[in-house]
Backbone:
């Protein structure tokens, strides 16, 4: 009897909860695997999917978002071996899973830490509460392909944003595998959209897209590209997280700043009276 | 019924001691600009020249930034928060003590009614310094980590609508956090900032901690582009805000922007009509409508449209337009000829596009820049007067039938600075407020401010918050 032939996986994009090929029909080779090479139109489709998911995801209760994200961590743990099989160090997979759990717990706490009642002079109850900014475009970092990715996606979505992520060009396989984790974890379609390919090609479209509210440039290593993306983002005043000045230690306690970077503060003056 | 006319009740301007000309306030002293350029500041209510003011060129900007850097490194940065706090408390107290003088000067230079500069601008300015003074020595407890650090030199560019109050919003938190500042007031309203410079001297604030450079757009651009500045804070138009965001790209400068707005003021059918009318008037006619968060789109529930409009018109007929220094004046002068042109152009377009303008009978002074309070009915969402910021006493009235439609229309704008809700139902206030994409939501009030209350926009109204604990973040390295 001959040896069983393995069923190979086709690595595709993740848009609106589905796994389409690039509309361009293009792909590129990574570790002898064909990976979808996303185009401008894929960016557009992903933004549409992300925008349609904003209302439901941001409208979900904070507890519910926390539950769903915790579920994603369970799925991540379950695929531990698969990530290791892609060549990731076991320690990185474990830290990534723990990081996801850490962020999941913030869902129903960030408003208490980052918002609050303000003692105004006048007959008003004055409350400042954080709200998600909307659709966040993310250029994922290339180093620590899973931990880095988790560390930019989880803080953006935990507060109710949706994301369009441009996976790091040389390391797309963990990104697509993470998409499979998210697709099986009750996360509504469109909350996370992942495009593989060349960020240098797709990021300018994301940065200038008028239906994107914020841009995370953490993964942009090319300084000139970072500047042009930040300039394009000014077109509709996107909130921008710039590339780090020094390499990030992804294993360190990140603090909540990646959550608050994508929050708006709404202050409500509610009248008091009898 | 007898009608009682108002007798003139002018506030004396003798309390203000204007110099014929002002230099730049750099490193604790008034100095002449390097290239000798100048502007004239004009009283918009009379077109009389109030004073000659220096126009800072690139060399002056550089001198101011250098002074700010030196003060940051040698004095203000190393100074314990408890000491910084006391300087800010001192400044707050002097503002209170000289508030009448500042209020009269503000009305002279800006054209706003003395009733507003005296009762709103000045008390809020002093309160803002008091509020942030108290933060200066408590920063490790503000939620930004145990050792929050200042950014360095802050370049700040402010508008002409609330000259002194916007100065306070910029300078107080910057100094409390340990930064030094170079501030550029608006070209048409530099005088209260220059008087503030004297107050810094009076408070013995170390030289270079606050530098005031007057000038127009080029001066502002030179400040924004100066490589020695670590942070830019800008309040003004969305167009300029976008230019600044583009200019700082790649520089690493921290940026906060407080820009334009086209706020919806939503009146539900259960709202107390008279109270709502007062709020609508305050929302759009306060400060001649020169307010970024002005309630410039009235969204009224269809069933009460006629009744509300009748009350609003009756109320508008009682508004007194005229001498800003008269204590009975409700609406003062438009700040400049340029702004008046813009208001006229957009209102003319409003009529041409098919909306119906209405103004109460009102006699406008012959000299100066004036515009009668105006409402447009029959406005559609596509009209330019419903989409663009007019920044004048012009209200666009639209209607809605259901709460969902009100929210939809309110959010149908690239802006997101503020919004108003008028209803007797508390639960409705909170549910509608949840759905509005705006940084400040006023319920059964409008244009209410407090130093403890964060202010700032969503979307193209900018980013960052001023006021409250949130306002510290703009001036800390976090």
Residues:
């Amino acid at each position: 009897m001959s040896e069983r032939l393995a069923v190979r996986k086709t690595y595709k994009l993740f848009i609106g909860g589905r796994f389409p090929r690039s509309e361009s029909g293009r792909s590129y080779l990574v570790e002898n695997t064909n990976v979808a090479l996303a185009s401008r139109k894929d960016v557009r489709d992903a933004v549409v999917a992300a925008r349609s998911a904003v209302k439901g995801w941001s409208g979900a209760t904070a507890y519910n978002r926390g539950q769903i994200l915790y579920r994603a961590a369970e799925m991540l743990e379950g695929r531990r071996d698969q990530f290791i099989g892609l060549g990731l160090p076991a320690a990185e997979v474990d830290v990534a899973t723990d990081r996801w759990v850490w962020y999941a717990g913030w869902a129903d706490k960030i408003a208490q830490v980052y918002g609050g009642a303000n003692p105004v002079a006048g007959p008003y109850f004055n409350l400042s509460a954080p709200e998600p900014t909307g659709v966040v475009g993310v250029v994922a970092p290339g180093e620590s392909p899973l931990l880095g990715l988790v560390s930019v996606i989880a803080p953006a979505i935990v507060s109710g944003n949706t994301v369009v992520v441009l996976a790091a060009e040389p390391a797309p396989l963990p990104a697509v595998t993470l998409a499979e984790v998210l697709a099986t974890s009750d996360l509504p379609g469109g909350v996370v959209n992942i495009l593989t390919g060349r960020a240098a090609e797709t990021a300018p479209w994301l940065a200038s897209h008028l239906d994107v509210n914020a841009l995370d440039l953490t993964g942009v290593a090319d300084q000139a590209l970072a500047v042009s993306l930040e300039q394009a983002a000014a077109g509709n005043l996107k909130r921008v997280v710039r590339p780090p000045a020094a390499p990030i230690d992804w294993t360190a306690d990140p603090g909540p700043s990646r959550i608050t970077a994508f929050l708006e503060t709404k202050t409500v003056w509610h009248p008091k009276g009898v | 019924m007898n009608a009682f006319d108002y007798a003139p009740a002018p506030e004396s301007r003798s309390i203000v001691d204007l110099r014929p000309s002002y230099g730049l306030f750099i490193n604790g002293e008034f100095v002449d600009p390097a290239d000798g350029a100048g502007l004239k500041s004009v009283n918009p209510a009379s077109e009389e020249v109030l004073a000659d003011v220096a126009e800072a060129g690139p060399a002056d900007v550089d001198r101011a930034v250098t002074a700010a850097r030196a003060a940051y490194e040698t004095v203000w940065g190393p100074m314990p928060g408890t000491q910084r706090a006391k300087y800010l408390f001192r400044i707050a107290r002097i503002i209170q003590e000289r508030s009448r003088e500042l209020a009269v000067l503000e009305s002279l230079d800006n054209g706003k009614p003395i009733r507003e500069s005296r009762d709103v601008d000045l008390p809020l300015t002093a309160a803002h310094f008091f509020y942030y003074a108290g933060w200066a020595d408590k920063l490790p407890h503000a939620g930004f980590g145990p050792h929050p650090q200042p950014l360095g030199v802050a370049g700040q560019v402010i508008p002409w609508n609330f000259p002194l109050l916007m100065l306070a919003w910029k300078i107080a938190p910057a100094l409390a956090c340990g930064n030094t500042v170079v501030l550029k007031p608006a070209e048409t309203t530099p005088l209260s900032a220059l008087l503030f410079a004297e107050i810094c001297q009076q408070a013995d604030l170390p030289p270079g901690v606050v530098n005031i450079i007057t000038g127009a757009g080029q001066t502002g651009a030179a400040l924004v582009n100066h490589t020695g500045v670590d942070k830019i804070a800008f309040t003004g138009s969305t167009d300029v805000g976008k230019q600044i965001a583009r200019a700082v790209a790649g520089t690493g400068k921290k940026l906060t922007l407080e820009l334009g707005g086209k706020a919806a003021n939503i009146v539900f059918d259960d709202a107390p009509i008279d109270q709502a009318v007062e709020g609508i008037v305050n929302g759009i006619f306060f400060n001649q409508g020169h307010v970024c968060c002005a309630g410039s789109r009235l969204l009224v529930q269809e069933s009460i449209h006629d009744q509300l409009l009748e009350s609003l018109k009756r109320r508008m007929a009682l508004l007194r337009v005229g001498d800003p220094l008269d204590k009975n004046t409700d609406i003062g002068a438009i700040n400049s000829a340029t702004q008046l042109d813009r208001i006229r152009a957009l209102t003319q377009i409003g009529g041409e596009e098919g909306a119906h303008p209405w103004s109460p009978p009102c006699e406008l002074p012959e000299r100066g820049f004036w515009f009668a309070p105006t409402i447009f009915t029959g406005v559609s969402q596509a009209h330019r007067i419903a989409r663009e910021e007019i920044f004048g006493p012009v209200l666009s009235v639209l209607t809605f039938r259901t709460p969902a439609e009100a929210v939809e229309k309110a959010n149908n704008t690239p802006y997101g600075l503020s919004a108003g809700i008028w209803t007797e139902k508390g639960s409705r206030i909170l549910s509608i407020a949840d759905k509005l994409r705006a940084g400040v939501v006023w319920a059964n009030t409008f244009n209410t401010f407090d130093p403890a209350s964060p202010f700032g926009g969503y979307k193209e109204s900018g980013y960052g918050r001023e006021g409250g604990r949130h306002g510290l973040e703009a001036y800390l390295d976090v």
